[in-house]
Amino acid sequence: MPLPAAPAIRILPETTANRIAAGEVVERPAAVVKELVENALDAGATRIGITLEGGGIERVVIEDDGHGMSAADLDMAVERHATSKLEEEGLLFRIATLGFRGEALPSIGAVARLTITSRQAGADAHAISVEGGRKSAVTPASGAPGTRMEVRDLFFAVPARRKFLKTPRSEADHAIEAVRRLALAWPQVAFRLENDGREVLNLAPAERDARIKQVLGPDFAAAALPIEAVGETFQLTGLIAQPAYTRATSAEQHLVVNRRPVKDPVLRTALRVATRELVTAGRYPVAALYLEIDPEAVDVNVHPMKTELRFREEAAVRGFMISALKKALGVGAGIAFSTPARPAWRPASGWKPAPPPAPLPHGLANQGFAEAGLALVPPPSVPPMAAPGLGLGFAPPRPAPLPEAPPAPPEHPLGRALGQLLETYILAEASDGALVLVDQHAAHERLTHEALRAQYLEGGVRAQALLLPAVVDLPASAAARLLDAAPELARLGLDLDGFGAGAVLVRAMPALLGNPDPAPLLRDLAEELAENSEATALDARLDAAIARLACHGSVRAGRRLAPAEMDALLRQMEATPRAATCSHGRPTFLKLGPAELEKLFGRR
Question: What pLDDT does residue 348 have?
């Protein structure tokens, strides 16, 4: 059978081509907000107002006091590839503006209803409309100097794309975050954002450090360290939080290159490498970093959203940034942020009476272990080890025989605890002679996770009412996210209620956690819910929330444990499913058998 004839090649209709191109630029309301606010900044605006309705799906309005456009410019602005920001072709490799491709306005007009009203100083105002790619004529209008852009019914022209949008709350959060990042990059500009009639942001012009602290909050301001490093071709400034102040995700890592907010992997890697010696695994440092670099040394035209860059000297940029951050944090300088020395561990065979360990936070000393099923089993008695003598003659005296330590019962694969290393790891000896090293925080995190999960599956995590309800101040979007998830969180033992804009009232906490500070827990939960959005299955969202609760309710590294507590932890690990890894997938223990030890010492 002959093959069917191939279809003829043809040029796509302009409307279809514009809608396809719009998919690279306009993926959600946040992209519309970002593009239009960037246009306002490029136009020299000193005040920008943003209004959202229905998360920006129904309506977005951007108003600025910038230079404005003439009637002729207004007519040209909605054509594809029309721009005033590239006067010469060679300037493509020396970009000094946020926008330059001339795709934003025609892309938005191709998928939504766009109306632009603009007025230059000393001239009349004019307006133009674009609906689904069809533009109107420019008409006289009324308006203040500057530009007003209104976008309605996003994706009305491509209903299939609209189905992929999330809830208005989630879309509004993304749009608000886009404005926050631009506000950090342009502190000299005033920003006001209103969502469904409620003011979310109102930022007056400020010095950069003041703007950073205003956007990232008072807790960050209290922990912030300044950064200032100048190289031959680079300059890095900004603020980074002390290593003790971290977040559950990388959402609060703000990177700005030549006044352009980016999420560049090279810069994020540099931040991670510079802080990995100080920040606990699974946590993320918080920073607002500003890199100034020759525009000819960086290509911003490698990503449709211009959030990733290509550096001409990538290794040099990364090395410069790592060095500057380490210097600011004192890595290797032996100052306040270096890891403090910890007392050496003492083997169980030579155990001497020690001062009573500092009490665990309420709910972790006895209640936490008991509710997690940790019975405090006394450790087996071990006779003291005789120290071998060292003679001074040619024939050294025979060392005193070492008493044999009683082997661990065969039903205890993790063996018996010998001691504690660095107040973080439990050293144990298994019945087969293997050495077992247990990460006490990771192990107890898994035990707490499984105990919480078991309670949840039985009908709900048992809650403990707080004697005095706690008020936790949060960003408005984080508070709203927690309150939206309040019914789910109630099943996890958290009783939350609204307490004005940007505050949450905590009435009860999971009893298994004891009495931790609710503020860092709620911050992490809000970020966890943002990462695991409503598109994620409910079970996955709840399991992520349980993991976060378990992390905050577990024995921390640096907590000295009594021998009975160490053995109780080992016994409970042996009886707990998935005890080989913590809630984040990291191993909870390592085991070195006789063969591995002999190989390490060159015996085989």
Answer: 35
Note whether 295 and 343 are within 8 A (CB). no
For residues 521 and 385, is the Cβ–Cβ distance under 8 A?
A: no
Give yes or no: residues 181 and 62 share one domain.
yes
Q: Is residue 2 part of a domain?
A: no
In the prediction, which pLDDT does 193 show?
97
Q: Give pTM, 2 decimals.
A: 0.66
Ramachandran angles phi, psi of 193, nearest 5°: -125, 130
Query: In sequence order, what are the residues at sequence separation of 6 or more whose Cβ sits closer than 8 angstroms to the Cβ of residue 596?
Result: none
Distance from C-alpha of 287 to C-alpha of 272, rounded to nearest angstrom: 11
So what's the pLDDT on residue 374?
A: 39
Domain boundary (203, 226, 257) is at: 203
Q: Which of 147, 137, 175, 160 is nearest to 57 (CA)?
A: 175
Instruction: Count each helix (H run) and each strand (E run) in the chain, helices first.
Output: 18, 25
Considering all CA atoms of the chain, what is the largest pairwise distance in Å, rounded to the nearest integer? Answer: 111
- C-beta of residue 190 within 8 angstroms of C-beta of residue 101: no
- Where residue 524 sits, what CATH number does that domain have? 3.30.1370.100
Number of C-beta neighbours around residue 409 at 10 A: 11
C-beta of residue 78 within 8 angstroms of C-beta of residue 90: no
Distances (CA, A) of 92 to 258, 296, 419: 15, 9, 64
Alpha carbons 20 and 311: distance in angstroms, whole number:
29
Give tens-digit pLDDT for 429-481.
987 788 999 998 888 888 888 888 888 888 888 888 988 899 999 888 888 88
Regions of the chain short of the pLDDT cut 50: 90, 332-403, 405-406, 408, 535-538
* Nearest by Cα to 114 from 103, 124, 105, 122: 105
40 touches 183 (CB < 8 A)? no
Measured CA to CA, the distance from residue 56 to residue 155 in angstroms comes to 11
Question: Domain with 107 in it: what CATH number?
Answer: 3.30.565.10
Tokens of 10: 């043809």
Question: 314, 330, 233: which is closest to 269 by C-alpha?
Answer: 314
In the chain, the number of structural domains is 3
Q: What is the domain extent for residue 431?
A: 341-351+360-380+405-604
| Residue closest to 267 by CA, chosen among 259, 277, 258, 257 | 257
CA separation for the pair 449, 43 (Å, rounded): 53
CATH number of residue 304's parent domain: 3.30.230.10
Going from the C-alpha of 393 to that of each of 257, 259, 396, 399, 400, the distances in angstroms are 72, 76, 6, 14, 17
d(CA 60, CA 35): 12
Q: How far is CA 499 from CA 131, 168, 193, in A?
A: 42, 22, 21
Q: What is the pLDDT of residue 557?
A: 60
Q: Could you tell me if 91 and 169 are in contact, meaning their C-beta atoms sit under 8 angstroms apart?
A: no
8 A C-beta contact, residue 463 and residue 590 = no
Q: Which of 59, 57, 34 is nearest to 180 (CA)?
A: 34
Distance CA 483, CA 464 (A): 19
